[in-house]
Design a protein that fits this description.
Distance between the termini: 46 Å
Number of domains: 3
Structural class: alpha+beta
Order of helices and strands: HHEEEHHHHHHHHEHHEE
Mean pLDDT: 88
Shape: globular
Number of strands: 6
CATH architecture of the largest domain: Orthogonal Bundle
Low-confidence stretches: 253-264
Helix content: 40-55%
Strand content: 5-15%
């Protein structure tokens, strides 16, 4: 477990600090800015796959004799889920698992565990997470050690909105930072999932605008420009061009010059 490997966590934090300096990232809380960051690092396809368990993926493909990186984000998922997926895939793009293994000289660490911990350290930085958690517990007059289901759901929902991450990531962070035991994870997850009505009510009452929003975006880098080039150079047939426009919900318009715009 990455939680039990202190040196691995130290290296992940150092990796993030170095990247923030390199990329001039000044925001302490990344939230949805992770999408802009990911877009600068690789080609990202945003597309909704309805009723699918797939959240996203990362692949490398040769393009003109050069390996290029591509990431897919399923925009049928909620924004908080997309944010986590984008951070996870960014870890793959940046090869954080290779970095950590090289620094530690170890090969027995699961790359997915390393990348998940990267996403947690990037989106849920320890210092800020601890501060917000402490402030909220004080507001609730929490005395411990037991916590009611109502308080737990309120706490997790607040943190979800504050950091724009899924509830599973918040509960996992409780474990990583030593607030609850590993064996309690399933209990917390089931407890949260059983309080769907309270969760929905809290979103409305507190105007948690980052939660349960679905944008169903259709986009991929310079796709509009690329389709235009394919058509103007007659590389694809009219039928294939029309299919591409349909897939990405694009239409061709003429207003002084030829351009493309997103529908509705």
């Amino acid at each position: 477990m990455i939680k039990e490997n202190e040196q691995a966590v130290i290296q992940i934090k150092k990796f993030i600090d170095d990247k923030k300096r390199e990329k001039n990232i000044v925001n302490e809380i990344i939230r949805e800015d992770v999408f802009e960051l990911l877009d600068t690092e690789c080609v990202v396809l945003y597309y909704p796959l309805e009723n699918s368990d797939i959240e996203g993926c990362h692949i490398m493909k040769p393009v003109c004799d050069k390996l290029e990186q591509f990431v897919f984000i399923n925009t049928a998922k909620t924004v908080q889920e997309q944010t986590w997926t984008a951070a996870h895939e960014l870890g793959h793009v940046w090869k954080v698992d290779s970095y950590v293994k090289e620094k530690l000289g170890q090969c027995n660490l699961d790359p997915e565990d390393l990348v998940n911990r990267f996403a947690a350290e990037l989106l849920l930085p320890e210092g800020i997470f601890n501060k917000e958690l402490s402030l909220k517990l004080a507001e609730y007059h929490y005395q411990g050690p037991q916590m009611s289901a109502d308080m737990m759901v309120r706490l997790v929902t607040y943190l979800m909105n504050y950091f724009c991450t899924p509830y599973k990531a918040i509960i996992r962070r409780f474990i990583e930072l030593g607030y609850i035991k590993e064996t309690a994870e399933e209990q917390f997850l089931k407890g949260f999932e059983a309080e769907t009505e309270l969760y929905k009510r809290l979103i409305v009452e507190n105007q948690y605008t980052r939660l349960e929003t679905i944008n169903r975006a259709y986009a991929m880098g310079s796709i509009m420009h690329d389709i235009n080039l394919l058509e103007s150079h007659e590389i694809y047939s009219d039928k294939k061009i029309a299919r591409l426009r349909q897939l990405f919900h694009l239409e061709k318009t003429i207003a002084g010059e030829e351009r493309y715009r997103f529908k509705g």
